[in-house]
Amino acid sequence: MYNFEFQNPVKIIFGKGEISKTGKNIPVGAKILLTYGGGSIFKNGVYDQVKASVEGFEVIEFGGIEPNPHYETLMKAVEIVKKENITFLLSVGGGSVLDGTKFIAAAARYAKGDPWRILSMRAPVLDAVPIGAVLTLPATGSEMNASSVITRAEYQEKLAFMSPLVMPFFSILDPEVIFSLPEKQVSNGIVDSFVHVIEQYLTFPVNSPIQDRFAEGILKTLTEEGPKVLANRLDYDSAANLMWSSTMALNGLIGSGVPQDWATHMIGHELTAFHGIDHARTLAIVLPGIMHIMREQKQAKIIQLGERVWGITDGSANERINRTIKMTAGFFESVGIPTRLSAYQVGAETIDRICDRFTKRGYKIGEKANIGPGEIRLILEDRL
Amino acid sequence: MYNFEFQNPVKIIFGKGEISKTGKNIPVGAKILLTYGGGSIFKNGVYDQVKASVEGFEVIEFGGIEPNPHYETLMKAVEIVKKENITFLLSVGGGSVLDGTKFIAAAARYAKGDPWRILSMRAPVLDAVPIGAVLTLPATGSEMNASSVITRAEYQEKLAFMSPLVMPFFSILDPEVIFSLPEKQVSNGIVDSFVHVIEQYLTFPVNSPIQDRFAEGILKTLTEEGPKVLANRLDYDSAANLMWSSTMALNGLIGSGVPQDWATHMIGHELTAFHGIDHARTLAIVLPGIMHIMREQKQAKIIQLGERVWGITDGSANERINRTIKMTAGFFESVGIPTRLSAYQVGAETIDRICDRFTKRGYKIGEKANIGPGEIRLILEDRL
Questions:
Q1: Domains assigned to chain B
Q2: Looking at chain A, which runs of residues are DSSP E strands?
Q3: Nearest by CB to A3, which of B10, B18, B217?
Q4: Percent of chain B whose predicted confidence (pLDDT) is above 70
């Protein structure tokens, strides 16, 4: 195990009916900007529960934060925060709304010029408006971490930043929000959470049995509970297990003291930037290619994944790896997510554009920083 | 899964050499009371590392905090904190030193009379001196939780309190401290951590696969890595895995959203109070008795434990339970901890005294609050 530091102060409030505790977790006298997305919260009852809970607070609303939240949209909220002297941001939505709210929190207090630098230059975040979150969709893990991913539409750029200052003070996770989710969002959430675990697990062994078993426990739970939620959206227990899996997948715990990859995400982000493909779907496309092309470097962990999650216990190393890749891609397909570029009408010309971008950036990715434009080409060609 | 709240803001600093970061995690200008135990920190180099790191701070030392820390000892430290205007407590030791330091922290700021009430009446803790910890022994999990157990020698009482205000601001976990531990302390730590997990796991199913698999992951790791540490105290990787298991065993995570038992601890505390038996050893005595006497209530989880941790996959329910109890007690014995009262020269008269105490207290214990003096008698008689 590597040396590490781990600290995650987010207060998790989990379970049915808990949205009613929103207000009492916000500082008395706070002036709130309530951020949300496309408006599903008005249909599923979440908005009404939140509003009832924050009665007595001064609340301004800012809706329309899109999936892969746009810098351009968020900067409008930043203006409101400044003009209205907002002191608390309440994110009511999924990971995109929360990621966007994290950027609003940091950008509104950014004192050194254009806040775009927080993303483009990883300029340090020295202050942020406090955030609370009511989660409406299990997927990104943003509710219990310091990360945010933002898209700048005009540049077709999708970039991330991290700061402990944008971790929510509290996140309310009521699994009942899953009851009204469309199938596509549930599928995306399952795959997104699955690949979050994989990015922190499928690297090389460093003798870290706690981290490995926790990771495998989340993966196994996602493979068992995810399909149950798809089959019956009103199954509260399975919804709860999916939601908790999704949070545990990316709160820093399983990634502490172990190597991490994130190449699937970085390549996937480009597919979203160029084609607007849902984030989770890009991961489902890229991951099998990474497993195939990087199979030597990842051999021990792919075999361990096959054995402990998919029950593959015999065959040569190569056979086991092939079957593990097949089971993993098959799982994504089984929850309704195509894993080939062709299914999204994406062809070879996009591969050229993505490789160009990585060539310009000049750095390599993956747990050994050895995936460059050449490897990315092979990975994506494997997924045509 | 039950509804739950989870928040654990402790900053974990994990790995070899990390004790050198002690000073830079303490507020500038703090006046420190450095608390420690019997003096092993002077022999294993930890004291020197800590002192080098806190150079420049004003530091007063308070040693002699005993295992099962005594109220009487701790109150002497409380006087020093008040008289010297101490603003930060630095616990350098194992779980007893840290539990004691937590009580010092709360008692020194207790404004409503005798601080004994914090323990005897669970009087609310409204303020506490900030704490940092350098851990020298993996066992209690105190480094990442809000709990403290204190003994009042004159009453032969061992009582607990909890408050988020006494959670350490940081805990430094350098697995190298294990290199010089005597065998007995390693054995105790393995069993203590194991039973912490069991108290949060071996109850009844509530459909909580994440919590179950995390718990099983810790148990399995303890059974694999514990013996390696006993066999070779200089095996850094195994020491690190044991240390991380021990912290994860009792930081609130695996117990969130599930029923908890704690009867083994509550009965075990009486054995320590009357006979001074090491805490972990009392747990090793009591747990097999709880598993046997409460086998109906715990049936599903005992069978799951047997299957997933001990590999017991066939036989009738009763056979599987018997084998699981045998494997569990056998594991404790295999790491050098006797599991029978007779091995500690404790006989039937102690059982009477313990049952008397529970009769006087008038409440029942266990995950269904159905273990009273009658059941406790059966449990302990099973362990003679």
A1: 11-176 (3.40.50.1970), 183-381 (1.20.1090.10)
A2: 4-14, 31-35, 58-62, 88-93, 131-135, 147-152, 157-162, 170-173
A3: B18
A4: 100
